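Convert to structure. Protein one:
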Amino acid sequence: MPTPDSPPVESELPNLTERQETILSLIVREHIQSAQPIGSKTLVEQFDLGVSSATVRNDMVMLEELGLIEAPHTSAGRIPTRQGYRYFVQRLLKIAQLSPQERRSIAEAFKQQNVDEWPRVAAMALSRTAKLAALATPPRAVENHFKHLELISTQGRLVLMVLVLQGGSVHQQLLTLADTVPQEVLSRTAQNINQAIARLTADQVRAKTRAQSDELVREIGELVADAMLQVNQQGARDVYRYGLSESLSTLSEHETQQVLRVLEEEDLLENILRDTLAYDE
């Protein structure tokens, strides 16, 4: 059962008249362009709505009562709420098709980068295409799952661990083992671990390798599990930004300071992104 904080799904959005949808769409678009509250007088003067300012005001009152727009501070104008943007995206937004040149440009950008660079490329491509600021985060499961392990002897007790997770992300880490281990033993150990813990989570990897009789398998298993947990924790903080300077130039000084504060405080930005992604699920 949805809670008061649950995101509205399509069936939960209110039903608007055609004119109310037009007014909401104009408020959203004009606010995005100007970053200012939009009043009924502005809408009547700039757009041929075929009705009086009083009629537009009445429709805006209804939109406000439905939680789709709100008044910031004491302004006479209105701005979209979160649910107002949701209504606009789900019911009113007409998605423009990318041109063949834009498609080729985006495809070429991804082709030249490895998987770990894709979120950065995605933010850049989205910002350039939409001409807006863009934030991108890597796709993350609730927990990462093991896919493949390589162990490469470097010098003495130092071993390079190459860890591949489900989804294709690759992570390298230099390990210090308790004793020097020949490469052939490392290769055999990696093969045994690959067979034993395929598709397991970090906690499952730890439990499975601890039950093995081979001491080296147990040692490597602990290090693999630790690395996977570190990746889980780090992944939530990976945020790629692009096009911020252009977008900030349209904001007031107060709004710019608010945006910069969010971007500088990693925990706050992480919470906002997590809440937004949960809202979209």
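Protein two, convert as well:
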Amino acid sequence: MKIEVGDILEGTVIKVYPRYAILLFDENVTGLLHISEVSNHYIHSFTDFVKVGNIYKVKVISYDEKGPSMRVSLRALNTFEKRESIAHYRVKEDNISCQVLKERLPEWIKEENEEKDL
């Protein structure tokens, strides 16, 4: 597998840490995705955004053949490429259940009202 800086590759997240994730690519090449390379916007919780098993298209920003390892970026992709990469993980509306909200909402309202009355 010939890898060069600027290539767009698809990798699977195999480990997530608070500020970075390790992705696995073809031929056991690993890549580091740092929190600063995910978005131009502030990300409150990297571990909520990136999950083990997710597959992302990323751009190679540095590569070391000796490793073989590389640094990769979602942020460096153009707008279309980002949408395509992240779109794989949208939750279908059919899979969203409001049952928990329906069950807990009266309790939360009661608690909130009790706090205000104190």
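The radius of gyration is 20 Å. DSSP finds three helices and five strands in the chain.
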